[in-house]
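Form P-L/3: holo structure prediction, ligand oxa(dethia)-CoA.
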Amino acid sequence: MTVRAVVRGVGHYLPERVVPNAEFESFVDTTDEWIRTRSGIERRHFAAEGETTSQMACKAAEAALAQAGLTAGEIDAVIVATSTADLTFPSAATMVQDGLGMTAGFAFDVQAVCAGFVYALANANALIVAGQANRVLVIGAETFSRIMDWSDRATCVLFGDGAGALILEAGTGTGEASDRGVLSTDLNSDGRFRDILYVDGGVSTQSTGHLRMEGKEVFRHAVEKLAATAHAALGKVGLTGADVDWIVPHQANLRIIKATAQKMGVPMERVVVTVQDHGNTSAASIPLALSTGVARGQITPGQLIVTEAIGGGLAWGSVVIRW
Ligand code: UT7
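OUTPUT (holo model):
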């Protein structure tokens, strides 16, 4: 008998304000056409004034709990993947814990930028397999609108806000790739590339800072590393792209998503794409896409799902799940 971390429910939350590409034309030198053709993005959501990452995370968590038919009291760990927590401390996860009315269990944040949700899922899986938690609420939530430089057209048009949540629950399997649950994970980082995507501020430099990115360089790494990590995760359980029902990629750029799918030999009909509606929501993008894929009726129980993401660090990785 093998312990498996099985998906019990998903949910998401998007702030009310939708910002179409055309809105950026009024304050930076850009066009709807450029943004669509270079990134695939058509619109994104921005948090309201005063709306925080942990508030959005709570709403996504409530939706996932409702779908799972569980109460917050039945969860024993909360992990929030975010680079834009409300406060320096405590963690967004403890705020979610309190927001949901939980008074037991444990909670912590994971900071791996756009790869954060993949890292959080891998950690949740490890906690369950090690017997340290039975039900883990894994959330990706971000307010990247707070760290944009609104005069930098090369970055401010790309990002959005939102939150997605997924509940993993301990179950059993045979140890075969036919089991439901997380089947394999592959995590990587390489700090030599920290200067191509970063925020130029933080607590010890006494400022919040703004996101800075060498887009072309990040693009080059993404195309090379995403297919490699997905192949590595699949290979650990003897699977290939041909076995995949859905790739659920980090939603940064439609051209990266297409190139990765092509390298994996998976047609675009089997890729969940939400970048046009959400923009790049960093750690929130994969759970938002998973929840959207389920709501659209694309993702159904028993299917093989591969998630993959890359972001600041660089940090990248992949998780293979049988839904
Ligand atoms: O989530 C973390 C991971 N992040 C990513 O995966 C993002 C990776 N990078 C990308 O998605 C792409 O590199 C971008 C969408 C950021 C940019 O696309 P690109 O095809 O690499 O364009 P570029 O940076 O080479 O810029 C091409 C041109 C430049 O003008 P020149 O030098 O050719 O005259 C830019 O100045 O487009 C210009 N440009 C813009 N033009 C209109 C840059 N931003 C804009 C803009 N509107 N918003």
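COMMENT: The CA atoms of residues 64 and 70 lie 9 Å apart.
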